[in-house]
Design goal:
about 260 residues, mainly alpha, 9 helices
């Protein structure tokens, strides 16, 4: 049993490294490009806030840290959705090799996504700390929220992966739509405590909204979330994982390589 577990973990590691290297010949350059994308997003939102006339943080604290606390959660979530939803299906060519299975491909894609996100976060925060000291009220809990945002994205991606053999084009559109909707629905641009009840109901269905709001409660000393919960995204993630695993099992049992022959 231990030998089989070690072999599977080694295979997941190998496929995860392959996923990291396939986007760029130089893996370090690929990781730095991932960090550059996060920097561009942070700068874009900073400029947008300046244009709107918002020059200080809604929370008493660092304005740039307020922006980054939302951007990092959003990036972890959306990249995990894309990585898991785009993982290899049971009928793909690589599955013809004996040791390979869908669990390995899904796990490797998810871990590669988490690695890229963590690398980008630590590079950006490390670079920013050279110019200004950073203070997190609860750093471990903040990191836990990042992992929860990633896990929730993996759960959504797993459901989309289960649907992909049946409706591949629709799933592509759904994946892109979910990632784009989260730009607004995640609530990374404002505080839940500052929203009126009539607007709050448009966002509190979203697990990522709760994750970002709770993250700011862990990052900033002077902010206590009143309209979000840690357990809500946990329950939603567990439910989506169960639905995704059952759907992936059914799809794997019925999927045929001939389904995509005409595409």
């Amino acid at each position: 049993m231990f030998e089989a577990a070690g072999s599977t973990l080694g295979l997941i590691y190998t496929v995860a490294v392959f996923n990291l290297r396939k986007t760029n010949k130089n893996p370090l350059v690929g990781l730095l490009l991932e960090a550059a994308r996060a920097v561009i997003m942070v700068v874009a939102f900073m400029l947008m806030f300046v244009v709107l006339g918002i020059r200080s943080s809604p929370v008493r604290g660092d304005f740039l840290l307020f922006v980054m606390s939302g951007i990092f959660m959003f990036q972890a979530h959306t990249s995990a959705i894309g990585a898991v939803a785009g993982a290899g299906s049971g009928a793909s060519g690589i599955m013809k090799h004996g040791p390979m299975n869908t669990a390995v491909v899904i796990s490797a894609g998810a871990l590669a996504s988490l690695y890229r996100t963590l690398f980008a976060c630590f590079v950006i925060l490390g670079g920013y700390s050279l110019f200004k000291p950073l203070y997190f009220e609860h750093p471990v809990a903040s990191l836990g929220m990042l992992i929860l945002a990633w896990a929730n994205g993996c759960a959504i991606g797993l459901v989309l992966l289960a649907l992909r053999p049946w409706m591949p084009e629709v799933v592509k559109i759904l994946t892109l739509m979910i990632q784009r909707v989260q730009m607004i629905a995640s609530g990374k641009m404002f505080l839940a405590n500052a929203l009126p009840a009539s607007i709050l109901v448009w966002f509190d269905w979203n697990p990522l909204f709760h994750i970002i709001d709770q993250t700011r409660g862990f990052v900033f000393l002077n902010y206590t979330p009143h309209h979000s919960s840690v357990m809500y995204p946990v329950y939603v993630t567990l439910a989506l994982v169960m639905v995704g695993l059952m759907g992936e099992f059914v799809s794997r049992q019925n999927e045929s390589a001939s389904w995509s022959a005409a595409r």
